[in-house]
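Changelog note: in this version the structure field was regenerated for every chain. One regenerated record is shown below for reference.
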Amino acid sequence: MKWIKRIFISIGILGLICLGGYIVYNVAYAIGEAGGYDKGYSAGQKVGYSLGKTDGYSLGKQDGYSEGYDLGKATGYEQGYDEGVGASLGHGYTLRDPTYKEAVTFFRQDKTDENEFVEDTYGVYVCSHFARDICNNAEKNGFRCAFVSLRYSDGGHSIIAFDTIDRGLIFFEPQFDDEVKLIMNQSYSQLNNYQSPDYDDTIEDILVIW
């Protein structure tokens, strides 16, 4: 009978050991799970937040800058252009001095010389009208063109000029599409091989108006 008691006692001890192991296991598991979760959450939050903040800020800054720059540039340009034109600060484009080749090409292609010269007591379409029209046409093509008034001892004459960037100031006769020379105290017609008029066309003054 003693051996039966020993068996039961052994079984009881083994059962207590198993129960104790199970309890210790559950307690240790719970502690380990809680500790691991807390540390994992903390580390994950720290790393994820830092990376997310950095990446999100960089991407957001870049996208926001691009959109803001494009929108601001478009809006500012349109408003500035409208305000500038509205305030009569310009014609909406910029004039420039042409090269000699550009000036000659424009002058040859312009049709102002084909207009009819008509003169009466007050003048209908004379030299000043030719000069005016070709100056306006040059402006439409973006070129700065001067209205030139020649003063004679008796009357005067109107031509045009370009301040070319490679050959300087060049004078043109709008009625004949000719490049002309001007020298003070000399006859305009003789300088340029034109038929002499019935008046003295000696150049006494040259007025260049831009």
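Spot check on this record: The two ends are 137 Å apart (CA to CA). Residues 70 and 76 are 10 Å apart (CA to CA).
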